[in-house]
Amino acid sequence: MLCTTTSPLNSFGSPWPDLNDGLFYSDAVSTTSDSGLTLIHFYSSKYKNSAPLQGWLQRIHNGQITIDGEVVKEPKAILRDGMELVYHRLPWREPDAPYLLQVLYEDDDMIALNKPAGLQVLPGGLFQQRTVLMQLQWRASKGSSSLETQGSHPVPVHRLGRGTSGILLCAKTKVAKTSLAAFFAEGTSLIGDSSNANMEQSKRRKISKIYRALVNGILKQDKIIIKQPIGTTRYPGVAKGLYVASASGKPALSKVEVLERDSQLNQTLVQVEIESGRPHQIRIHLSFIGHPLLGDPLYDVGGQPMCFDSEHEDESFAEDGYKCISVYVAVDGLVFHLIIFFPPL
């Protein structure tokens, strides 16, 4: 996203600890399906994608699972209706990420930040602590701003990809969060309806999202409107599916304008305004028209993936109580996901 400011920028942020706090996953034993099962059967069958049998045995022996608040190290413990189970995923060192955030604007209701590339907005995958949300919460707890006022809820109201830099709006109250979220949603809700009334309403949107991107190749047209729907497809390592250009997907609209062409480097600088907010929309739309983002390791011409990208790997196979090696092998056009587990030394 683009932003300009004439006032000095304030920054905040605390260095990341070496290890995060780990994660806690809760379950309740129900009469119909879980009561009478052993502890190891419950976890190894219900969460087999998280670890194999040996991995769950190791976690139980490590004391990472509690029943009604008490650590249980017996894999064959019998579960009864109403029991509360908690699995503690051990702390780990998250990948490197910047932590300083520039404040572009702030009042009692919201704060606009300049998010740096490499910093994730919300927790997910390997990034559970090194996020914008965590820095906002730390700032509020220190009482360094009006964030600490009663009813304050510092929360990002939209997302920017981890590799994207730009303006990020965050709400500091529940009322602001509801209003800003509605402003962002109104543009997406109009996509796919070409009626004159909605066309006029689209022009009066309260929030516009404008980005700049460097793409491969030379765009011949000065302005392009891309209306390619975006859906999901099965993809190795992505449990919920990878977002791609898909005729059966949800409506999406991007307006592309050429800012500069570099024939010598075979690159084009473009400005992109998106009226919807589908995941990876700009990457998918620009690759769909034959001009992928420069350096994009995932999307190829046509808005489809060209190979496995570790950025999208399912992080459910955490090295927690056991070790694993995850390997992707391509044979005759098919991709096989091999996961090899072995006990820690």
TrEMBL record:
As one GO molecular function, the record gives: pseudouridine synthase activity
Mind telling me which Pfam families this protein's record contains? Answer: PseudoU_synth_2
Q: Name one GO biological process term.
A: enzyme-directed rRNA pseudouridine synthesis
Looking up Gene3D superfamilies in the UniProt record yields:
Pseudouridine synthase
Residue intervals of the Pseudouridine synthase RsuA/RluA-like domain: 110-287
Q: Which reaction does it catalyse?
A: a uridine in RNA = a pseudouridine in RNA
Alphabetized InterPro entries for the sequence: PsdUridine_synth_cat_dom_sf (IPR020103), PsdUridine_synth_RluA-like_CS (IPR006224), PsdUridine_synth_RsuA/RluA (IPR006145), RluA_PseudoU_synthase (IPR050188)
Protein known as: Pseudouridine synthase RsuA/RluA-like domain-containing protein
- The species this protein was found in: Salix udensis
Lineage of the species this protein comes from: Eukaryota, Viridiplantae, Streptophyta, Embryophyta, Tracheophyta
